[in-house]
Design a protein that fits this description.
Four copies of one chain form a homotetramer. Chain A is of the alpha/beta class. Chain A has two domains: 10-158 and 361-373, NAD(P)-binding Rossmann-like Domain (Rossmann fold, 3-Layer(aba) Sandwich), CATH 3.40.50; 159-354, 2-Layer Sandwich (Dihydrodipicolinate Reductase, domain 2), CATH 3.30.360. The first copy, chain A, is built from eleven helices and 16 strands. The first copy, chain A, has helices at 20-29, 51-54, 65-68, 92-104, 137-143, 159-175, 213-225, 284-293, 297-300, 322-325, 357-373, and strands spanning 10-15, 35-42, 73-74, 85-88, 108-111, 152-155, 178-187, 228-230, 236-237, 240-241, 243-245, 254-261, 268-276, 311-313, 334-341, 347-353. Chain A has a six-stranded parallel sheet with strand order 3-2-1-4-5-6, sandwiched between helices. A six-stranded mixed sheet of chain A has the order 12-7-13-16-15-14. In chain A, strand 5 (108-111), helix 5 (137-143) and strand 6 form a beta-alpha-beta unit. In chain A, helix 1 (20-29) crosses helix 11 and helix 6 crosses helix 8 (284-293). The longest helix of chain A has 17 residues, at 159-175. The mean pLDDT of chain A is 95. Chains in contact: A-B, A-C, A-D, B-C, B-D, C-D. Chains A, B, C, D: It catalyses: L-aspartate 4-semialdehyde + phosphate + NADP(+) = 4-phospho-L-aspartate + NADPH + H(+).
Chain lengths: 378, 378, 378, 378
């Protein structure tokens, strides 16, 4: 991607800039066509130091030279007030307060943290799925005390949720609602951040448990795949009717998630099995076609970080695989393989997603790109 | 285990003695209280050489000194005619003919190979589950041409099937038939033998496919968990009614298996979800109790290689794990953890089994022990 | 090993009992023929809790049932005053003060920590090498203020130092002093304790640096392989002449160590190259014979935890290997292979040592066994 | 790199195109500015099939679309006669005959195989070191029977040799000849090709032996770092004096190599220690400066695949590392770190090289680029 010269860049700030997700934001944004890194925020331990000194750089590409000498700021809104967009890679233990303060200061926050994902007025957006949920922002602003003009928070999903909702969205658009869903994950260690998983726990091993992860998948999937609906009885917010996320209420969606950590650096592999509401269900062939044809709004509207192919479907029986396929399209799409009938539900397949790209930083960035295109970010 | 002196040892031969399973047989049998290694058989490439020269020893315990100088024989019945028991770790491409010839030569063959698993007169036995299937042997002998007096073949199951049928057997005995079953495996590289999986395919990777494995799990599980029934219309074999395996016919069992290879040396991890026929289903607490209380025939009748505890149930949320738990009881039992409700089926849990012990050689050995106890081996 | 009944067990206390080394002490001592675990000490965070609750058990064998309900004590001498032996697996940041206090309280401390290794009156003992350095203890006690009757500290070496000094000791005894030594280590992650090395730092990776390790190897090797000598000019300690460690002064030993961390769970592999003082140097064949014949004092005097074979020499060109050979003799000996001429120095070979057994807890235990045999522990 | 339009592309053929090195050639050459893939050769098993069918693609970037439908040819010169350059990734068991036949057919062969590396008339070239050895080609052609006009063979070095000779070359140019050299390698599994190292041999393990590798390093290093000299007594080849490789004869170079395989996918790590002829030796600081300033002919003359920085010197104490640094400059340069004094020799440091790029295919390509620039390829 080349920086485009026909409009001034949008200045961005990065919260949690020294962390794993923050480093990924810097890597991606340093070559972004629209956004220019303006401020880096981190804990008071890092504040005041040049970024190169404050960070323990863990990306496999070198640190962009433009940020090396930037002095890290405390995560307080004052230093970020000229930023058109704030990206947050903050840890959950501090993200709630800081992101809230940034929103109150009329800043547009795109967050990877989990703190606001369940807020009824905050959209939880996987950018290849439900960008239309951005519409809830006006309500979020109107209900804020005091009401906001420009500030808001948008969250993106857990890295494992992101992987399977993309193909599921493609299937629901084509074949109608899914009724039941079983997902078994094999998640990469990078999903736990740094230092994250101790090596003694994972080399030559599988850990069949990730704290809170199964519940997140079961809950987030419903918010993302569901729509929005008028609250009953109707309540007005200004002149609009108050909206709520319907949590896939039109078809109660039963979800069972089982999460495992495996010795893979990057790339979440997920075994998915689904039962459709409609009968008969689509054939594996029809499912493959629908996945390949899926063209989400981020592509249609030209978000520069959206992948050319949202879902790459493999015909080889043993693909996708994390090491072989995670880097495809810089990790901005997902890969699907082994689409076949499920003897218990209807259809089963595997999904691979780059948990640090589409599963984290890339999602926030595409969300922000779409918000710019739609004028939500001004 | 100490060799017992109150009866003469039963001499055993090992087919495929230089292979991975053969090496495991040697390791286990060299300290067995009943069995004494008498002949080692391998391919003509190895025949005539001292075992220590012929083998590429890959066990993590040293080669037992008693076998080092044994001269490897061709896999022909003549050299094995004094063996009371034959253990076969042969590869599938040669096991069919060789095991058939050994049976025809009135030898008792306990095989890890897949070739005879689907034979309607050959029992497929997981020793902590369905030892009673040994009863089909008299029919196997009577129908052989010419009829056999002592020769027969007993097979044990695929290493991944073995893992989950043990807890499922415990559950069916306590709570009645299972109706639906979803299993997602994360299988160790040792399951593929040696050289097996190339390291470039599996380090920092997951391969979501193992050729033929899912079909084996779906088929074998039904044969193992099912019973035997009179063939209709009745046909006599001698004075007995011809029996057939009913393949869990009393409750058609829907099974969906998804198999993955992970970078683990030993220990298959399986995520299992089941739906019971009965309603309401048992609670997780009741399931845990049933698993802990499970006491299969191999224990009741005193097979020396049977584990003290068939199923070890973990209370910690993140156990069992391959590296931590596979060596428990020398891998002769299985470990279960994370027993909890499944939002789509009824109950889900994880199982860990040592694929080279209870998943392979240990199974054959317990099967043979039970056959000795029951007088099937004479 | 069976507990021997002909004398009362020696009660032992374990400091740092919840840590990695502490867990190993418990595992080994729970089946020790002489020692009986009496008190477990850990940080104030754990004190007062049953051991099973306080610990995050990371051994691959189950927690011995005898310690599960033992209430963890603070690391203060009062609770340990009846212990004949104290084993310390404390971290270096607290070991200095605590071990000093225990010594002052007349307790016999065998420590894995590095704090006292360079103390001129504290022996640094690799039990298959320099048990005779225990003789310095009387001087340590006499110089203490106030002088001690029973209290002392004995340290054992860094896990990587331990590996190579064992074969080097065998070579020096047979062929005279070594003049130059190059060691390149490939060290297991367990050497860094738990949580230790983050998995993101080591999967599919090598880290060519371990803080402080190269200096430790270069310094400790001289203290261990060197002897003791009268201080000049003579000073008396009581009626004895003050002794000092001569640091291999008779032949100034040049040592160059390069340390690397590799993705191996247990077992340090070391590439060693040596130049002897004598010329011509011994041949590879002579070196192999000397290594195989090596019989250190711990064996001669019957320390129960000493290995039967101190140094196992492999003839196969590709052995030893960590996964295949680390468990040999429960990790109490070392394995050597690839003994051959070095075109730059004289002889080169590889050494494998189990860094958590002979490299840590087993060393302390043999040191204590020898101290019991010699009457140093009373 | 963009294909340049100001001259017609040079057509190239690739021998062993389905193998690991062949795939890497295809990946690199499909975007090369000068070379255009014209013919793909492989064994008769693959010949006649479309490349996409014949190959088991193992690169982490997708197969270039241009080669998918190319029909694979037998490795016979006829099909390659229009190729200006032949790249060979053939296995050693067939490379000798095939490459010889291609040379005899007046083709210019750049080979990764070891077969001709020791031929006294074939240059063994690491392109960031000794491109001037190409001068021996005219002699190779003149001595061939019959003499050749265009055909020749150029080899590049073993992947582990390549890594350390680059910094050593920089040091010799600046500080004069090296006298002694100790190298200890930790080599990636990809160095063994595919299927290569069985996963059971390397997960959680180190193998301290690679067949033939140590001897290769010790021999190849001398040929590469040495010069060429007139044969004594002088013999004429045409009008020139016969040349021979002097094998570093001006300073007999003692080399001791120890080779280990580690569980790393790509990237050989090497611990190097050197003694210079000159005294006093350069300081670590001077060594770092010389390495950073090194500018080999491939850069000076503008080979398009040469790295911008031949040797990247790291200041961080724990770098380079394979996973973090191997992809730098697409693996065309090498990384050096931990430059420090060696207590036994003079200076020690670590080197990291991408064994499939500069250690294999990239070397051949730069060699060919330079041959084009020098008019050796016509």
């Amino acid at each position: 991607m080349q920086r485009q010269s026909d409009r001034p860049p949008i200045t961005v700030g990065i919260l949690g800039a020294t962390g794993t997700v923050g480093q990924r934001f810097i890597t991606l944004l340093s070559v972004h066509p629209w956004f220019a890194i303006h401020v880096l925020g981190a804990s008071s331990r890092s504040a005041g130091k040049p970024y190169a000194t404050a960070v323990n750089w863990k990306q496999i590409t070198p640190m962009p030279s433009a940020v090396k000498d930037m002095v890290v700021e405390d995560c307080k809104p004052e230093a970020f007030k000229e930023c058109g967009v704030i990206f947050s890679g903050l840890d959950a233990d501090v993200a709630g307060d800081i992101e809230g303060a940034f929103r109150a200061a009329e800043l547009a926050v795109f967050s990877n943290a989990k703190n606001y994902r369940r807020d009824p007025h905050v959209p939880l957006i996987v950018p290849l799925v439900n960008l239309e949920h951005l519409s809830i922002i006006s309500q979020q602003q109107a209900l804020h005390s005091p009401p906001l003009k420009k500030g808001f928070i948008v969250t993106n999903a857990n890295c494992s949720t992101t992987a399977h909702v993309i193909p599921l969205s493609a299937l629901e658009r084509k074949f109608g609602p899914i009724d039941r869903l079983m997902v078994t994950t094999m998640q990469a260690i990078s999903g736990a951040g740094y230092p994250g998983v101790p090596s003694l726990d994972i080399i030559d091993n599988v850990v069949p448990y990730i704290s809170g992860e199964e519940e997140k998948i079961e809950w987030e999937t419903r918010k993302i795949l569901g729509g929005t609906a008028d609250v009953e009885p109707e309540q007005l917010v200004g002149e609009k009717v108050l909206q709520e996320f319907d949590m896939h209420a039109h078809t109660p969606l039963k979800i069972s998630a089982s999460c495992n950590r495996v010795p893979v650096t990057v790339g979440h592999m997920i075994n998915v099995s689904v039962k459709f509401s409609r009968s008969p269900p689509p054939s594996p062939q029809q499912v493959c076609e629908a996945l390949r044809a899926y063209r989400p709004s981020a592509q249609v509207h030209g978000c520069p970080s959206a992948p050319v192919q949202a879902i790459t479907v493999h015909d080889e029986p043993d693909r996708p695989q994390p090491r072989m396929d995670r880097a495809h399209q810089d990790g901005a799409g997902v890969s699907v393989g082994r689409v076949r009938q499920c003897p218990v539900l209807d259809i089963k397949f595997v999904v691979l997603a780059d948990n640090v790209s589409i599963g984290a930083a890339t999602s926030s960035i595409i969300n922000a790109e779409y918000a710019v295109l739609k004028g939500v970010v001004r």
